[in-house]
Amino acid sequence: MAKTDRSDTIAESLVFGLALAFSGGLMDAYSYLFRGGVFANAQTGNILLFAVNLTRGEWIAALGFLTPVAAFSVGITISYLLKCRFPSGRSRRVFALAAEILLFAVVAFVPQSQNNVANALISLACGIQLEAFGVINANNVATTMCIGNLRCAIENLLAGCVKSERGALRKAGVYAAVICAFAVGAAAGGGLIALVGSYAIIACAVTVAVCLALVAFAPRE
């Protein structure tokens, strides 16, 4: 009988997803509050601000908002290629989490005069995380942004209350919990920035390191 890899179960558990959502919120707060008002995760906002600055002829400012969009896209690409290269969920997840930790560690020491570089690295990590970890309790969930989760939470809440669909309210609770974890991470990011400035991003590295340990050392049964 083939062994069951518990790393799959752990990586798709609610607690694991909440930890990543916490990190996602902290990333966005860090890039926005400390790195020049750029969103690490919310690429809709970056595209909007890129277009607005472009129409104003503010080319350098526009580039500052386009760079994280490009880096985010690269992160998605890397994660997708990892899925193609490594059939084992454990291998690609370990690689993805280790890459995030490395990127966060580098960002902590990037001076504010190089915010474009810092934001690109954070968005790269966001793209990797979003593509590599998209399932919680069999639900498609984003751990780096809220708009899709908010839609799904409301849809399932209505399905449970209006149509009495079985399990819908539980699904709504999962999405709501992820949104709350993201908000807590953002709040923590604001507090840490006030205390330690650039090094606040290390909290993301620590959170992701815990996730990495859980996946890497999960037993095979």
CATH architecture identity:
Up-down Bundle
What's the CATH first level? Mainly Alpha
The percent range for helix content is over 70%
Alpha-carbon Rg, integer: 18 Å
What is the number of independent domains? 1
Percent in strands: under 5%
Biggest sheet strand line-up: 1-2
**How many strands in all?**
2
What do we call the CATH topology?
Growth Hormone, Chain: A
CA-based shape: globular
Spans of at least 5 consecutive residues whose pLDDT stays below 50 are none
What does this structure look like?
The chain is globular. Helix content is 74%, strand content 2%. The model has no long low-confidence stretch (mean pLDDT 92). Helix 5 (89-107) runs antiparallel to helix 6 (115-132) and helix 7 packs antiparallel against helix 8 (168-196). The termini are close together. The chain has helices at 6-11, 14-34, 43-55, 59-85, 89-107, 115-132, 147-162, 168-196, 202-216, and strands spanning 135-136, 139-140. Strands 1-2 form a two-stranded antiparallel ribbon. It is mainly alpha-helical and 221 residues long. The chain has a single domain, classed as Growth Hormone, Chain: A (Up-down Bundle), CATH 1.20.1250.
